[in-house]
Amino acid sequence: MLRQTLIVFGALTLQASTAFAATDAHEASSGGLPQFDPTWFASQVFWLAIAFAFLYFFFARKTLPDISGVIENRRTHIESDLELADKLTKEAEDVQEAYEQSLSSAREQASNALIQADEEMKARAAQAYEDFRKRSETEIRKTEEKLEEAKSGALNEMTNIAADVVGQAVEKIIGTKTDTARAKSAVEALSATNQKKAA
Amino acid sequence: MANPIQQFEIKPLIEIPVGGLDLSFTNSSLWMAIAVVVSTVFFTMAMSKKAVIPGRMQIFAELIYEFIAGMIRENIGVKGRQYFPLIFTLFVVVLLGNMLGMIPYSFTYTSHIIVTAALAFLIFLTVLVIGFAKHGTHFFSLFIPPGVPGWLLPLIVPIEIMSFLVRPVTLSVRLFANMIAGHIMLKVFAGFSAGMIGLGALGVSAIGPMLFNTILIGFELLIAFLQAYVFTILSCIYLKDTVEIDH
Q1: I need a surface site. Which of A26, B6, B35, B164 has the fewest CB within 10 A?
Q2: Is the pLDDT of residue A199 over 80?
Q3: CA A108, CA B245: separation in Å to the nearest integer?
Q4: Is the pLDDT of residue A169 over 60?
Q5: Pairwise CB contact (< 8 Å): A48 & B178
Q6: ipTM, 2 decimals?
Q7: CB of B20 within 8 A of CB of B78?
Q8: Cβ–Cβ gap A51/B1 under 8 Å
Q9: Do A60 and B85 touch (CB under 8 A)?
Q10: What is the rounded CA–CA span in Å between residue B176 and residue B9?
Q11: Per-residue buried b or exposed e for A32-53, using 16+ beta carbons within 10 Å of the residue's own CB
Q12: Which residue in B34, B58, B91, B180 has the most chain A C-beta atoms within 10 A of its own C-beta, making it the best mutation to test that interface?
């Protein structure tokens, strides 16, 4: 829309200017747009071709490979940076995984050692208790046996003494010597009946 | 009042007659040479460091590169890479021609029909030569749109051929007309200002056309870029026919 307006404006002013040109003495000779004067067509095309060809080869050989090289270089740079970052992240993850693994295994070991130590201690305590129990039982039994022995020994002694006392009493009372063996059996029989009565 | 078409006059600077041809180095050739120097110096400086992290100039150079690369990718496709230098050069030549023309007292070589026609015929001939070399006679199927009933073909094919042949004409006239119209407008409004100053007390009103000219210059800068873009993108669309024919 704007372009068309411009072109219309241009055409109008062109007409106006050619009217001016007609009145201008020095312009009267050409009487039109310089664009349609074929005098300089060859020169224009020739120099345009040189300029265009020069720029074409300059851009094709130098500028465009330079720019695409830079852009390519930048892309590979960014890509390699990203790759490196990825690799480092992966490495860090591996390290963390290894750390966590070693941590969990250490924890397991520690708990195992704890359980083992606990069991060992319990076993030793049980053993010690058992040993003590056995030793004290035998000790007690021995003491009881000794006590029994001493008791029966003392009883025997008492029988002997009683038989002696009986013998001496009999001698004093009736003046006869008594057989110790008989006296003893008598005492024993007595003590047996006494014991039966007590029971 | 200065003649608004005086700015388009060609003045020979160095006379070079070759046989019957006059190949003189003119003011037009001078501005083409300036465009060549400006673009080579700019791109050489911009790409001197080839930095991974680019500076300002390199960003600008890469921006133009990506702009043209995107244009080719979208309009021709992946196979369009072979035309990259051609399209890039075309864009730079037209853009610099339009832009350098905005400098006062300069010469706008893209406002000359012979220059734009030469560029348009370069594209046209490239399409023809590469099109025939690649597709052979299958290239003619370009003139038969797909899905057209047979009885319409006698009507459609001549129209298609006409529209194909008229491409270089419309391509060159579009750029030429835009440039010439814009530059004449600028000159005419500047002439109004200059004329009004001579009116004594009313001379203050000269500021009116001057302000309008200021807006117009901004508008013309946009047109200068836009026309370079249009010229380049249409060239891409025409070159697409050499790469693949849809039917």
Answers
A1: A26
A2: no
A3: 73
A4: yes
A5: no
A6: 0.90
A7: no
A8: no
A9: yes
A10: 15
A11: ebbbeeeebbbbbbbbbeebbe
A12: B180
Name the token pair of A113: 């050692």
Name the H helices within B47-166: 56-75, 84-100, 113-135, 153-165
- Counting DSSP H helices and E strands in chain B, the numbers are 7, 4
Tell me the pLDDT tens digit for each residue of A188-198: 787 778 777 77
Which of B24, B32, B112 lies at the smallest CB-CB distance from A35?
B112
Confirm if A31 and B203 have CB atoms less than 8 A apart.
no
One-letter amino acid of B62? E
Please state at what angle helix B27-46 crosses helix B84-100, rounded to 10 degrees: 120
Other CB atoms within a 10 A radius of the CB of residue B3 amount to 18
Q: Is the residue at B227 inside a domain?
A: yes
Q: What's the domain range around B117?
A: 6-243
d(CA B65, CA B63): 5
What confidence tens digit (pLDDT) does each residue in A39-81 have?
888 899 999 999 999 999 999 999 999 999 999 999 999 999 9
Chain A: give the shortest CA distance to residue B50, in Å: 6
B15 SS3 class: coil
Q: Is the pLDDT of residue A90 over 80?
A: yes
Residue A7 binned pLDDT confidence (cut-offs 50, 70, 90): low
Assess if residue B1 is contained within a domain. no
- Long-range Cβ contacts of B29-32 (<8 Å, 24+ apart): B29/A43, B29/A44, B29/A47, B30/B107, B31/B97, B31/B100, B31/B101, B31/B106, B31/B107, B31/B108, B31/B109, B32/A47, B32/A48, B32/A50, B32/A51, B32/B97, B32/B109
Whether B10 and A17 lie within 8 Å, measured CB to CB: no
Residues of chain B with pLDDT under 70: 1-2, 201, 246-247
Candidates B3, B25, B172, B217: best to mutate against A (most CBs of A within 10 A) is B3
C-alpha to C-alpha distance for A159 and A187, rounded to whole angstroms = 6
What's residue A22's pLDDT?
Answer: 44
Q: At what angle do helices B56-75 and B27-46 cross, to 10 degrees?
A: 110
Check pLDDT > 50 for residue A29: no
Question: To the nearest whole percent, how much of chain A has pLDDT over 90?
Answer: 54
**B96 neighbors B225 (Cβ within 8 angstroms):** no
Give me the number of domains chain B comprises.
Answer: 1
